[in-house]
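Could you please review the protein record set out just below?
***
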Amino acid sequence: MDDLLQQGITAYKAGKRDEARKIFITVVKQNPDSELAWGWMYQASNNDQERIHCLKQILRINPKSVKADQLLNQLLAQPITTNAPLSSAPSPIPVSPSLNQANSSDVAPKKSGNIKTWEDLDKRTPILQKSINELFQKHTALQSFRDAREWDNDSYAIIDLLQNFKNDWNVYRKEQENILEQLYQERKNRSFINKVLSTRSDENEVKKSIKQVDVEIASIDGIIEKLNVMMDKTPANKSEQKEIADVMKEVKKELTLQKREINENLRQTRANARQKTANWTGPNPGMLGSIARYQRTSIRMEKERALVPMENMKTFIETNLISLEKDLNWVMHFKGNEQEGIISEYVRRCKYCGRRVNTDDLCLGCGAVI
């Protein structure tokens, strides 16, 4: 590792920035906790996004690095350049060779199999959520079949990541269940006095953790379901557009018929109530008058009880019809020919956040080393 890093430093000092950059990328992939390697990676970076990522990694490893903090603040305070090398590179950021372990990170482990703690899993959530939000925003701007096809591919990639993320949460949940079972067994083997005097704080913490995992898994399932629904309504070509539109029109027709039937039932219910009320309307003195008023009140209450569920169903159908009309307009607004919907199935992606990766070995979206 030291020899490879020294090769990169030598190449950098010799003016071979691109060669040095490739070597430094290899070094940080093999040893992501090397502050010295990230410092030299910062020196050889091609743009501000890479420099920001390198500085964040240095601060992850060594939060007390004053120079890295100053440089990061300077970069964040100015417009970010996408491909502008430093005109005059500063000297390497001072590092502490004895610091080998990271306490925290905004980039998760490279392999999901290494995730064992709640903290490791929790770090992945905001980065995945950012990718998902970008995907939702991109969906609203789709115009052509080609855009739709690319969006579908991005969605499939995100769903695969979410499924893997869900599996990691399930593994963690299983580990917590095993811990809880061990705590139960340990408590069971205690004497009666110890059972009475001891608290169950550890057990309660594990139970709370399991409940939180269930919330995370339910959230992932909800996002996957939403993406699947959105993909079902996003045509990749004209034939899919026609197929989706025909299904929506058929559903719209069925809902319209149901609404007409409900309107007829409402009209009939009101007419029957008016007829019954008329039978108890007129000069009714004394006791007969009291009975008539009671009957008219009963008829009105019976009518209201019958009308409420029908009115609710009518409102529900009308809401669905409005939503369906919007979805139909959305499906039909896509333009293009069949060939525009055909793109390459293979896209190089970040295995951590799912974004498309166009640069070598660094994701500029989440900063992960590919």
